[in-house]
Amino acid sequence: SGGGFALWHALRELCGHHPRLCIALEVSAELPDAPAGGDGGGGAVEALDPRWLGEPVRAALLPTDAYLTNKHGYPTLSRRHQAVVSALFTRDVQVVLHGDSLHTPPQPPLPAAPKPEPSAGSDGKDGQSAPSRPHPLEPYREYISYLYRKLPAPSECELAESGYRDYLQSPLQPLADNLESATYETFERDQIKYDTYQSAVEAFLRDKVPEERVASAPPVVLMMVGAGRGPIVAACLRAADATGRRMRMYAIEKNPNAVVTLQRRAEAEGWGDRVTLIASDMRHAAPPEQADALVSELLGSFGDNELSPECLDGAQRFLKPDGVSIPQEYTSYVAPISAAKLHAACAALQDGKDERTHFETPYVCKLHSVGLLADSQPCFTFTHPNRPAGGDALIDNRRHGRFVFAARDPAAAACVHGFAGYFTTRLYGDVTLSIHPPTHTPEMSSWFAIYFPLQHPVLWRAGEPLECQFWRDGDARRVWYEWAVTGGSGGALTHIHNCGGRSYDVGL
Amino acid sequence: SGGGFALWHALRELCGHHPRLCIALEVSAELPDAPAGGDGGGGAVEALDPRWLGEPVRAALLPTDAYLTNKHGYPTLSRRHQAVVSALFTRDVQVVLHGDSLHTPPQPPLPAAPKPEPSAGSDGKDGQSAPSRPHPLEPYREYISYLYRKLPAPSECELAESGYRDYLQSPLQPLADNLESATYETFERDQIKYDTYQSAVEAFLRDKVPEERVASAPPVVLMMVGAGRGPIVAACLRAADATGRRMRMYAIEKNPNAVVTLQRRAEAEGWGDRVTLIASDMRHAAPPEQADALVSELLGSFGDNELSPECLDGAQRFLKPDGVSIPQEYTSYVAPISAAKLHAACAALQDGKDERTHFETPYVCKLHSVGLLADSQPCFTFTHPNRPAGGDALIDNRRHGRFVFAARDPAAAACVHGFAGYFTTRLYGDVTLSIHPPTHTPEMSSWFAIYFPLQHPVLWRAGEPLECQFWRDGDARRVWYEWAVTGGSGGALTHIHNCGGRSYDVGL
Questions:
Q1: pLDDT, tens digit, for every residue of B312-358?
Q2: Does B310 fall in a domain?
Q3: CA B65 from chain center: how many Å?
Q4: Is the minimum CB–CB distance between B356 and chain A shorter than 8 Å?
Q5: Structural domain span for residue A344
Q6: Which residues are catalytic (chains A, B) (predicted)?
Q7: Is B211 a known active-site residue?
Q8: How many CB atoms lie within 10 A of CB B358?
Q9: How far apart are CA A279 and CA A227, in angstroms?
Q10: Among candidates B10, B15, B352 on the partner chain, residue whose Cβ is nearest the Cβ of A487
């Protein structure tokens, strides 16, 4: 209830957000109304009030009077209660049974073991006990155990991700650093992503060379900027084969270790003269001709956060005037979240320096113990190639977004620990990739979400809007984000996080 | 206006309470309504809205249209404007004149100097200027200068205090530490305090020995616990002389350096056998007889904060069953304040350790750049001797106070940076000492106030009450305070400061 959350919020504030303070929720016979439907992706978890999903719920008290009775006399739970308990299991919440035994099933759920003789050293009390008689709450335990066994087995993708849940990672700096081989390997495991790139290139090739001109048209020229160890080069070759279009391509890669692997792969897979390797930073490369399409996979969890805009702006000089970029467009999304665990993880990073630093850094993270408090909103969009109308005009990749969020449950207050960030991209035509929950590409594992912390969590008062602002800013050497809660919720305000890029930036 | 303050609050939050962010107030022709009368002690400063008094106001813009015209045609200010400008001067706020010259006094306020010849190197522009002609705003400047000269000269007490304004001092730990000679000297400079003690002892002696029994009554026995270098011993002797009562006294002092001074003073002033020195900690002293009155000066800026209750509870075994304590009673007071400067001073104390520590410590401080946001309320009271009804019952010196403050100006929001603490004491009968502004003992300089910080300043929303709680807690070795904003103002809450005495305590 609102009263329960207000009480929790007050207690936590008074205790100074002590990390050892946890919650036991009471799952009563009457459940509060479900909040308005979210933007999907949550599955069973949607049964839980999102305000609590991000809070440190350790136990759920399930009284016996919350059970119904099935036709055989056994205790059972309503569908909504079942969904709640299943959701709690996915969050590793301990279920605590309590109350009087209100059900007497016709037969004991477990065969009664023969009563053992009291041991020699036992006192009178022990002698009177009947350790083999089932606990009076055994039928309830058995039912909960049944719900647990009924949980769907985690998918391969979920299994792979489980070790990363709620673990904060610093975003990659692919321009400044060379990726390690293991990082490429992790990326390349995601076949869904490369299949989608192949589909996009196929669609492009079919548009570029209509069926009737397949024989006569000159080869289509593709330019892969940031080829890595070649997975998308291979996808392009497969796309050319699948569509029967003639194609040759250039693969530009700056990382010398990746170039070695790329060369071996070219030999092993017989890429021959269809692929020309250019071992160079794409910002300084000088390929011998312009391309019909610039292919890249430079997107980060927040779309533009690994500087895809700056890279592609620099690389579009390789592109013919009518050339296209794959991806053609990408958009980031933000949503306010309850995420006490992530906030505590930020606080635990404190190292005695400026305590703001770790709260002013966005983290790549497999969001798990997180409650989505409002539907996400589109944040920043970039379109490529980016040729400003003025011709000679400089490209301005700075952005500013102002968002007014409406709470999913307008009658309930919640605590905002920061923002979740996602992205979608249109690779070509209607071929898209997305980690935005409502449109997430099924089974794609390549990107986790991004978490923008708030140093001091904000109480989002019931019934009020929450206004937030995000900025993408930069100078000649670096790019960064700034973010703040700027009002709307009864004067709730935060400082502008990462003002001037003081705590976090991405180097150009 | 409320809008102006809200804007300032939002800007400051967005800038993360940056210490270089300051305010220029516009002193317009129409001044906002004066807030409800406070509890005195502020003088001219009362003309200013208390919400701004604690904020970093560096400049005041005074437009020419805020001036009236006197009968001679000179610009002048209304009484309220004069009070505001005078108050600004006491806060070292720079006054900025602006606007068109709207007054033409009949004669120039300064004789025009002869126009100097343009210097050899001057260009045409310089040649055209008339540097000696008074600035068009000169009549306004002259008037402001007149207001400044009209300010009352600071009193001796104010002069002595001026170096301590807004300077945070850690409270004394007189039980654990021995005071230095310079500290005693500072104390002893305050004749008002010792005169008041003398009055209290005189009143006690007259009550104890009625006029008709002066000759026959046995000598009254006084026991001075914590005699220091003897100023109150001397006051007691003067009281005995002034009333003609026979008296002998014991002076207990633990500080060996003070005892030496005390012995010299006894010899120099011929105290003779009227005063027996006992060089011992009052907790372990064993004087040869019980006293009619226990005299002490153990009070701190917050009354009980230097452990007067614990000391006097221990010393009351020296007291006859009908004996009295001088002081008989003392009460602390608290009030929410706006005090950005003090808060910034706390923040500047950060030393890379737990950042809470310096915000969970009360500081003795000559409050100056401070706005009193509500009338203060009595906090903790102690009465001596303290003989619980049960006889053998243990004395419990723990206290808890819950306060609901109403803003002086209910229509205006304000920022609470912490609490001011004061005390009053009834020494004997109706003889009192007070540093509580409404009843402050005139010209007494002995105590500054105490400042309880809030780590994260709280926005006190217009029209809402502010609930705060204070605790005095302790264990066998130490005593401490805890404090928090616990609601009332739109859910405004802070953590409980100094929980369990983790950041600050006074050793027993």
A1: 998 999 999 999 999 999 999 999 999 999 999 998 887 766 778 99
A2: no
A3: 38
A4: yes
A5: 329-507
A6: 297 (proton donor/acceptor), 306 (proton donor/acceptor)
A7: no
A8: 21
A9: 10
A10: B10
